[in-house]
Amino acid sequence: MLFKIKTMLHKAIIFSLGVLTLSNCSAQKEMNTSTKTSVTEIKETKSMNKEGEVIYFTEGENKFLKEAEMNLTFKGISEDSRCPTDVNCVWAGVAVANVEVMGLATRPAMLNLATTDNAGRNYFKTAEFNGYTISLVEVTPYPNSKEGVKALAGKYRIGITIKKAEEKSTMK
User: Is 158 exposed, middle or buried (0-12, 13-18, 19+ CB in 10 A)?
Assistant: First the structure.
């Protein structure tokens, strides 16, 4: 009697382990196929025709730039205090675009590019990454007083330029 209980217990344990192993395999298959589809969606490559040419992004858009060997994603606008088109303001305001950049052999980095340079407020139009200077040249649309900035969420478009950074000489 005790032998039968032990045998049944062993069979139940082996069966449970087999079921767990098979369910784990199917979960990994599902994860691998979903990862593959998301990677193929991102693999849009963009060729920089001329160095310094403006490249446009809509919110959430991702592009791989072959010549610069980097991937750029326009994550969104974190701040937009620009003066509405139909209002007179003392200060023109600023828009800050969040651009995630990643080189072939680097980790992702977030660049906060502003429409104006103001070091006191930590606003910069350009940033360097992987030997390239990335500059924000345009943010559209412009806010107006009727709809405000909140109505623009998800509708932003930016233009950036990418130029090879100048080599800094160590000789004087």
Answer: buried
